[in-house]
Specification:
Strand order of the largest sheet: 38-39-41-40-42-43-44-45
CATH superfamily of one domain: Alpha/Beta hydrolase fold, catalytic domain
Largest sheet: 8 strands, mixed
Radius of gyration: 29 Å
Strand content: 25-35%
Number of helices: 12
Structural class: alpha+beta
Distance between the termini: 34 Å
Length: about 750
């Protein structure tokens, strides 16, 4: 009877609340009205991800003219007013190309290019061709097939010639469509025209046209002496073998030179379109040497490249005769007690073909240095305790170089112009945030795309004739305005050395209450050539962090010593003992977290991928009483199983640094595991090969510790497509199972 009365009272109360709501006496709170995120919204593989990103404008240059590329049209953009004038539509382009009734129509114009500054020609692609369409005469001027088995391709707008690699062989097709096969011995052992040295030293391809397209430099990599690593392809679920074909999985070995073992040999060839002859640069024995950052002289007579020894502590800029291949001169040499890392080719000044600049960290920070063509240093162009991050091009009228640096702030990217003669620098943007500008071909206009912590995405056009003038073009709306968004903050602490500033990002739980204590997850990378914290939208926060904050977690991200854009001393602090100084800095972050009253010091987890996976396992095994839960993706376990170029740069070889390799190996740390650890890998990872994870599992079995393990068959180092949503669901659930509540740490919840 008492229970009945209570139920009646509840129903009466709910009816009263409903009546009040209808009468407007009770209104939903703002938090009640806000939408909730899903991983389909926040993860790059999600079905709704692109709708949840700040709106982007696709923009490119037609010489000095700014063009907007859209789905169905291309339009000229007035740099001052921002007004747009349509050039052509997608339907018109397909009609002019004779494709309107074809299955091979061009389906969008987001990737349209304008290769000739002085001609109204647009370059577009359908499924199998490159199409050059004149949008003034409405005629198809040229079409070029994209052959089956294509592995690399590079077109030169001056000569109209195309170099490409198909089925391992190198070809050149001239502007008239005449094809010449340059090689016959290409194979998985002999690789032409593709990236070499495992994509290190700034290398991203293997074909290099001379300025006017009369000569082609290309890589030849002999990797026949490199050991095979045995990856395996697992058939898709719907795969059916052909008659007589085995249904078994197939071997898919890759060439993988591990630290301290035999590496490949690279040479550089030069093909002359006029003579049809190929010569190879006479650089000497390529054994245990790296050739990188190939560049051409303006007159096409000379090839330049940086040559680095295997120890990577001796770098030389050498010139070669493009006709004979003969070595001409060593123009520059840089040595370092730890390592030298050339990542950029030299660039000649467009107003003085006798002078070029190169980039170097020799004074402690990456800066620009001016040389004459004989190798004499004229002057250092930029200097200061900041780094040049990117060179965009030149403004010949002002005799200046336009570049991006973090001079304004270590976690910013800002565009500058420096006068080569005087060294005077001029800031070209607003001095805030992270800017990713594109410079017009003639250097007169800068299209500036940027964000700030509270600005999702904004575009400005900067005119550079005289004093820079900034003009608003487009500001993206906040795509998250209807959602319950956490608080994003940033700050700095001192590194373990007591003097160096380290920058952090924090994402507080949605509905944050400073009087509560929250489970905290540290997201970590920590390795070279990467950073996590920047002055972009939400301080560079990843979507998964927002998702976790929505579930009640606090997220903390710290860039330790060893990460990028902070100068040579900062980056080289980890030399020969990767992971050690990084852990010390991350523990300074933990110390800071523990000082905050709303952080539950008994519920701290850690997650990272690749180098971050290595850091994750390092932290939970070196500090087992601090970290209760960890998820490590694609983790390095022992650096002797990582590749030659990267591994030996930062660790030397296992033969010359045995103590360092022993100290940094995680195999002996397996016995220290106390908390919950999940390891996740792609079965077909060609970067951090599966041997790392499998060996750690063997070590855990021997030690009697119990990690969890998950593998994605067919996936490489990172999960692609919608599988990334599945991955992050799994990562999230692991923290939900073991870190969400005080009772869940180290114990799976009953479902």
């Amino acid at each position: 009877m008492v229970k009945t009365r209570i139920n009646m009272k509840i129903k009466s109360f709910l009816g009263f609340v409903g009546l009040c709501t209808l009468m407007g006496l009770v209104r939903p709170t703002e938090s009640m009205a806000q939408k909730q995120f899903t991983l389909e919204d926040l993860n790059f593989g999600g079905t709704n991800f692109y709708k949840m990103r700040p709106e982007a404008r696709y923009l490119t240059w037609w010489g000095g003219k700014l063009v907007r590329q859209d789905l169905n049209s291309c339009s000229l953009v007035d740099p001052v007013s921002g007004r747009e004038k349509r050039l052509f539509s997608l339907d018109e382009l397909n009609r002019w190309a004779g494709l309107e009734k074809s299955d091979e129509v061009v389906r969008h114009l987001y990737a349209a290019e304008f290769p000739y500054a002085d001609r109204p020609v647009v370059l577009v692609q359908n499924g199998r061709e490159d199409l050059y369409v004149n949008f003034k005469t409405h005629r198809l001027e040229q079409r070029s097939d994209r052959p089956a088995g294509l592995q690399a391709r590079l077109w030169n707008s001056q000569s109209g010639a195309t170099a490409y690699v198909a089925d391992n062989q190198l070809y050149v097709t001239d502007a008239k469509g005449q094809k010449r096969q340059l090689t016959t011995d290409g194979s998985r052992n002999i690789v032409y025209g593709q990236s070499v040295h495992r994509d290190e030293f700034g290398i991203s391809g293997g074909l290099y046209w001379s300025p006017k397209g009369n000569r082609l430099a290309f890589y030849r990599m002999d990797q026949s002496m490199v050991a095979d690593y045995p990856l395996v392809d697992i058939p898709e679920l719907d795969w059916k073998p052909e008659k007589g074909e085995s249904r078994a999985a197939k071997a898919a070995p890759i060439k993988y030179p591990m630290a301290g073992e035999t590496s490949h040999k690279v040479t550089v060839g030069v093909y002359d379109l006029t003579t049809g002859k190929t010569v190879y640069l006479q650089a000497g024995d390529p054994t245990d040497r790296y050739f990188t950052n190939i560049a051409w002289s303006p007159d096409e007579k000379t090839v330049y490249m940086f040559e680095v020894n295997r120890d990577q502590n001796d770098c030389r800029l050498v010139s070669y005769d493009a006709v004979t291949g003969a070595k001409l001169k060593e123009l520059y040499r840089e040595t370092d007690a730890k390592y030298v890392e050339p990542c950029h080719p030299i660039q000649f000044l467009p107003w003085n073909e006798n002078e070029f600049f190169l980039q170097s960290q020799k004074d402690g920070y990456n800066h620009l240095y001016l040389f004459n063509k004989d190798g004499r240093l004229i002057r250092q162009i930029t200097s200061g305790k900041w780094v040049v991050m990117d060179v965009l091009g030149f403004n010949a009228k002002q005799k200046g170089i336009i570049y991006v640096s973090n001079e304004c702030n270590p976690i910013q990217r800002n565009a500058w112009l420096v006068n080569v003669a005087t060294g005077k620098r001029t800031l070209l943007d607003n001095g805030r945030g992270c800017h990713y500008p594109k410079l017009s071909e003639d250097g007169s206009v800068l299209m500036d795309s940027y964000s700030e912590p509270d600005v999702p995405h904004k575009y400005e056009v900067v005119t550079l004739n005289g004093k820079p003038q900034r003009h608003d073009y487009f500001t993206s709306a906040d795509p998250w305005k209807e959602y319950n968004v956490p608080e994003y903050t940033s700050g700095s602490i001192k590194a373990a050395d007591g003097k160096t500033d380290l920058y952090w990002r924090m994402v507080k739980p949605v509905g944050f209450d400073p009087n509560k204590k929250y489970p905290t997850v540290i997201y970590v990378y920590g390795g070279p050539h990467a950073h996590n914290v920047e002055a972009s939208w939400h301080w560079g926060s990843r979507g998964w962090e927002t998702y976790m904050a929505q579930k009640g977690y606090l997220l903390f991200i710290l860039d330790n010593r060893g990460s990028e854009h902070r100068g040579k001393e900062f980056e080289q602090a980890t030399f020969r003992h990767l992971g050690q100084e990084e852990m010390k800095d991350q523990m300074e972050g933990v110390k800071y977290l523990k000082s905050l009253p709303y952080v539950d010091k008994d519920r701290i987890g850690v997650h990272g991928w690749s180098f971050g996976g290595y850091m994750t396992i390092s932290l939970i095994t070196n500090y087992p009483d601090v970290f209760k839960v960890a998820v490590a993706g694609g983790p390095v376990i022992d650096w002797k199983w990582y590749e030659v170029m990267y591994g030996e740069r930062y660790m030397d070889t296992p033969q010359t640094n045995p103590d360092g390799y022993a100290q940094t190996s995680l195999l002996q740390k397996a016995k220290n595991l106390k908390g919950k650890l999940q390891i996740i890998i792609g079965l077909n990872d060609p970067v951090v090969v599966p041997q790392h994870a499998y060996s750690f599992l063997k070590a855990c079995i021997a030690a009697g510790t119990q990690p969890d393990f998950y593998v994605y068959p067919g996936e490489p180092h990172n999960m692609r497509g919608h599988q990334s949503v599945h991955l992050h669901e799994r990562i999230t659930q692991y923290f939900e199972d073991y870190l969400a509540s005080p009772s869940s740490s180290g114990k799976r919840k009953v479902q």
